[in-house]
Amino acid sequence: MNDAQGRGLTRRSALAASAGAMCFAFASPARATPEKMQDVIKAFTGGKSVTEGRVTFEITLLVENGNSVPLSVQVESPMKAQDHVTRIGIFNEKNPLPDVAIFHLTPRCGRAQVATRMRLNDSQMITAIAEMSDGTFWSATSEVIVTLPACVEE
User: What angle do CA 54, 124, 120 make, to 5 degrees?
Assistant: First the structure.
């Protein structure tokens, strides 16, 4: 191949062109939207309805730095064989991926409580959904305000 000045395409010019294309491809970061979050929640629940209640969040509502935000989720459940939490999902609406974590539980867990840390890209709604052994889904939602977002590179 020849370039505009009649020289052959060199390995250096091909690498420079592909590096430029890669920079263009990464110019806008991936970002979830409230609609994408709802689609992921719908997949998690299999389209079943979700009732608010039985789920409690412990998360700071005003976060100074979004790089490591601790949260815990607790679900009211006796955690007995006939009545227990089988899964807890945590979802967000503005991070690159809307599904933060999915925890699988059994009656042997003793209590329906999970804790983790997450990065937050911006102020946003965080939703936790618990699936019960009877197939019902319960949820809680919390708005978290982030003053210094994570997941952003300058």
Answer: 100
CA-to-CA distance for 10 and 137, rounded, in angstroms? 59
Task: Report the C-alpha gap between 10 and 14 in whole angstroms.
Answer: 6
Q: Per-domain residue ranges for the chain? A: 1-29, 34-148
User: For 33-47, what is each residue's pLDDT tens digit?
Assistant: 888 999 999 999 999
Residues 6+ apart with CB under 8 A from 154: none
Topology given in CATH for the domain delimited by 34-148:
Immunoglobulin-like (2.60.40)
Residue type, 70: P
The verdict on pTM exceeding 0.85 is no
- What does the pLDDT look like over 43-84, one tens digit per residue? 999 999 999 999 999 999 999 888 999 999 999 999 999 999
Amino acid at 138: W
- Structure tokens that stand for 13 in this block: 């010019």
